[in-house]
Design goal:
The protein is mostly helical. It has a single domain (2-196), classed as Four Helix Bundle (Hemerythrin (Met), subunit A) (Up-down Bundle), CATH 1.20.120. Helix content is 69%, strand content 0%. The protein has helices at residues 2-32, 37-57, 74-98, 100-103, 123-138, 142-170, 172-180. α1 runs antiparallel to α2, α1 (2-32) runs parallel beside α6 (142-170) and α5 (123-138) runs antiparallel to α6.
Length: 197
Amino acid sequence: MKQIFYIILAILLLLFAYTVFRLIVRRDYITRGRLGTFSSSLQLIVFIGFFSFGYLFNPPEWIYFWMVSISSSRGLYLAGLLIICIGFLVSFGTMLWFGIGRAFGVHLDGLKKAGPYKLSRNPQVIGGYLLVIGISLQWPSLHTIGWILMYAIITYWMVITEEEHLLRIFGEEYEEYCSDVPRYLFVKRRGKSIASD
């Protein structure tokens, strides 16, 4: 019964995320040129819903992760803890460096290409991946595999929506930036279409 509930909630979350990123946020970007409070709030709700999944479907003791009880082997637990710390620093450090308003799509004052944005067009997403993978290493289960896949799908919808917006605003400058810097890490884009990345 728990697996069916997991699948139903995962599908609902993915449908909600698609509606938020590919319909509502996209419409805001096209009509307003930025996100409104409603769209930004919906994005936040998507990620709150996503990160709440672990509390709903992992072992009951998972919610007490700060008590350092070990669910996986000690080596996996420590590797997960290290990855979580790096992910936290990358994700939230980049967000602070970038600016909270810019990170939530509310302010846009030029294309940022310095600092962590020289290595990746989406360092915050990379930090989020590290958080999710680190937690999954500490509390391995089939549910965490689904959790990682959901994160990949949700962030992909968010990223391609943002890329379409940035291409509309910055045009050729953004195209050049996309040719020089990978969407995530290591793999640079080829050709003209951002969506094919």
